[in-house]
Specification:
Elements: E1 10-15, E2 18-23, H1 26-40, E3 49-50, E4 53-55, E5 59-62, E6 68-72, E7 82-84, E8 89-91, E9 105-110, E10 113-117, E11 126-128, E12 133-135, E13 149-154, E14 157-161, E15 170-172, E16 181-183, E17 207-210, E18 220-223, E19 230-234, E20 237-241, E21 268-271, E22 276-278, E23 284-293, E24 298-309, E25 316-321, E26 326-337, E27 342-349, E28 356-358, E29 363-375, E30 379-386, E31 396-398, E32 403-409
Parallel strand pairs: 3-6
Antiparallel strand pairs: 1-2, 2-4, 5-6, 7-8, 9-10, 11-12, 13-14, 15-16, 17-18, 19-20, 21-32, 22-31, 23-30, 24-29, 24-31, 24-32, 25-28, 25-30, 26-27, 26-29
Length: 411
């Protein structure tokens, strides 16, 4: 390298933060020429070309084989570092933190930015939040013994349930705060389902299990000692014996004619418990007077409807309806006008949805429907009703205490 002779140089401030060299001495020229020749070789030695202007913080570097010296402008963001582009030095896009604490883990906290994940409390593990790594809220123990089962012993704390060395133990929720614990099966409240008959203890023939006395006790065998006896209660004991027909609670139901009885089934009564009003001519199901009939059966029935008409124009109409299958139906419909003391409509119907209607005076009136029905399939049986004609009054009301009486027939 040539000998460097110190000479003075002067700088003129041309604009803020910019220094332009007006006189550069041989010392710096020799220095940069020596640096250039070291980089490009003395065979290509040329005079050093120096960019005449630099800004605060620039780093000087040789740009090309000509010997041009340029300034690398300081990185725009704190944390950038100098790296090679393969031909020239350049500030990195990646940003590094200025400091790190003991135990920090380096990770990309954002695009092109490295951050430090601060070490967490003992037992925490690193997991993904979906976008960044983070220490978990829950903790896990450092060790597990053979046979231990992991479980959450409290909120966000993983623990190990040690194995039970006793034979035939099962997991239950009988631990502290309903944590899992080893236990034997509690047959009082820890089982479900039905125990097969083959798993029951055997008892004597012609016996049933029960408690013979009035107090709580273990079940025992109760044996029928004689033919035709039934299990019945007598006083404070349960045992096999004969039926006492003198007792009203001993029997119920109707004995068929073929078995020596009357064969008449007690009637089913349904009472309308509230007034119901309709203000148009669209037939609607009554809210109360509905019954379910069995399949392949015969029934006698009576509807008695107390009516209140808001005006003289609307009248009243009704039909029989429901989901029951019908093989035969006969009913007589009577509509009575109280004011005129007259039967204003009387008609025979033989099918569901066959309506009968008539005009009525305003005020109180009534309707009676008597009939018999035979069913093919079970279903509902009900009455529908509405105004007979459109009017401007308050409509027609079927009043509380209207009723339906149904009796099952034997044939």
């Amino acid at each position: 390298m040539p000998q460097i002779v110190a000479q003075k140089y002067s700088l003129v401030n041309v604009e803020p933060s910019t220094l332009v060299m007006t006189q550069i001495d041989e010392m710096f020229r020799d220095l940069f020429t020596g640096l250039r020749n070291s980089a490009v070789g003395s065979a290509n030695s040329q005079e050093l070309v120096l960019d005449p202007s630099f800004t605060q913080g620039d780093l000087l570097y040789i740009v090309d084989t000509v010997g041009t010296v340029d300034g690398l402008t300081v990185g725009a963001t704190a944390g950038m570092f100098i790296r090679s582009t393969g031909t020239l030095p350049a500030w990195s896009t990646l940003i590094l933190p200025n400091s790190a604490a003991s135990g920090d883990l380096v990770y990309a906290s954002a695009a092109n930015t490295w951050g430090g994940l601060t070490v967490a409390a003992a037992g925490k593990v690193i997991r993904s939040t979906g976008s960044l790594p983070a220490y978990s809220t829950f903790t896990i123990p450092d060790t597990f013994t053979q046979g231990a089962i992991p479980y959450a012993s409290s909120a966000n704390v993983l623990a190990g349930l040690a194995k039970d060395a006793s034979a035939t133990r099962y997991l239950s929720n009988t631990g502290s705060s309903n944590n899992p614990a080893w236990a034997q099966v509690n047959v009082a409240n820890g089982v479900t389902g039905d125990l097969p008959f083959a798993n029951l203890t055997q008892i004597a023939g012609l016996s049933v299990l029960g408690v013979t006395g009035a107090s709580t006790a273990d079940v025992a065998a109760m044996t029928a000692a004689s033919d035709f006896q039934v299990l019945r209660r007598s006083g404070s004991a349960v045992a096999f014996g004969a039926i006492d027909l003198a007792q009203s609670a001993a029997i119920t139901g109707i004995l068929p004619i073929g078995n020596g009885g009357t064969g008449i089934t007690i009637a089913t009564d349904i009472r309308k418990t509230a007034d119901e009003t309709i203000t148009d001519t669209t037939l609607q199901d009554d809210d109360h007077l509905t019954i379910s009939l069995a399949a392949t059966s015969a029934y006698a029935f009576r509807y008695f409807l107390f009516l209140a008409n808001g005006g003289a124009a609307e009248g009243f109409q009704a039909d029989l309806s429901g989901t029951v299958g019908v093989s035969s139906l006969k009913a007589q419909v009577q509509i009575w006008d109280d004011t005129l003391n007259t039967l204003v409509a009387c008609a025979r119907v033989t099918a569901l949805s066959a309506s009968v209607g008539a005009g009525l005076s305003s005020g109180s009136n009534f309707t009676i429907i008597d009939g018999t029905i035979e069913t093919t399939t079970g279903g509902t049986f009900l009455i529908r009703w509405a105004q007979n004609a459109t009017g401007a009054s308050a409509g027609v009301t079927v009043e509380e205490q209207s009723s339906l009486i149904v009796r099952k027939l034997n044939a």
